[in-house]
Predict the structure.
Amino acid sequence: MCLKFYSLYMGEGFIAAVTGKRTLKPVYSVEMEDKKVALSFDACWGAERTEKILDILDKYKVKTTFFLVNIWLEDYPDKAKEVAERGHEIGLHSTTHPHFTTLPVEEMKKELKDNYDMVEKTTGYKAKLFRPPFGDYNNTVIETAGDMGITTIQWSIDSLDWKDLSAQEIANRILSRADKGAIILMHNDGKHTPESLEIIIPKLKAEGYSIVPISDLIHQENWYVDINGIQRKK
């Protein structure tokens, strides 16, 4: 999800009600023994705070995952290149930021392909992960992405940085929920996101957590996602 579009977000309960029963799940978190978590940033518009976020991540030698939508890529190609050049993973977040469950399969494929192509053209990155806009998915969304070799990713911890919470409030939400295999949702232009990272990263490291890109967190082979969205080894 992205800040600009949160006012349209209706929540998973509503989405499930209007799209029918979902039996497939994206990856919300990962079952693991190691103390690892992944930070992720959705980028749809705005880049005022992106440089500061990148500087803080460099300061603590942390690599993360940025999910980019074409709307943002068109406006900030140099920032997208910088994200990749600084060693962060790039994921897909669609071309036009639609509700994917409202689209026919061919439109879903076009949204993903056009997003993939622009990410590759702009950054050189061949994306393998997809975060649906609004967190909106159903079985067809996951199957369509999977058929294209793309893994659908959600989150287990929502920072709520889009609500302009204070840095300490954002940090409290994340640190109180942090656990092995957690995927944390943040945004590249949240008002207090940079300051919150100055609290979150040192604290997680002090508690023994490694912070990694999502592709370094998830299982790459012989895995399944259970009914709660936890990715497990077969």
